[in-house]
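Hey, can you fold this one?
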Amino acid sequence: MQGIDRRIVLAALAVTGLMPRAAFAQADGVAGKVDEAIGLVTAEGRNRQRPLVPQETVFVGETIATGNASKAGMRLGVETVLRLGELARVRIDRYLVNAGGTIQLNAGPLLLDKPKTSPPVNIRSPFGLISVRGTRLFAGPSRGVFGVFVVNGAVTVRSGGRTVRVEEGFGTDVSRPGAAPTAPTRWGEERIRLALASVS
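Sure. Predicted structure:
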């Protein structure tokens, strides 16, 4: 009976617009919404696959995938923007508006843009863990390795028992899953251009 009462209260708050955004996101599993979908973009989860188009809702637990020559952009919560290049696969493991989240990057490139005021986000991949606070970063294939480049802000990258801090304008490489990240270096303009072009 208490569970039924709670659902009635939550529904009433949602209808009247009085429910806090974070509570609503937690209650219905919403992670965000699609801003842009070019080519083949799908969401996989709950034993089904569905195409994604602009304004489509993305849920926690879903894997967002892009096909050949395809790209996607979405907004997680209110302030965090996630962009995916072609042949990307990203699972949104956890995301709450006021508590941050965890994203699993399984393939392809991504660009994450989040302000310092928003909660931290962790990006997990076979190449390591990227801890993100307020920053704009690229992560994904670059010159035959897995590269992480910080457009602004700073991140930490942990893999192979080593942690490096990557500052604005610098990048680090992980040659293979389980390998340690290289010491951060400044990326050249051409490498930066190609990396950002793959997700925009």
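Helices lie at 2-16, 21-28, 189-197. Let me know if you want another pass with a different chain boundary.
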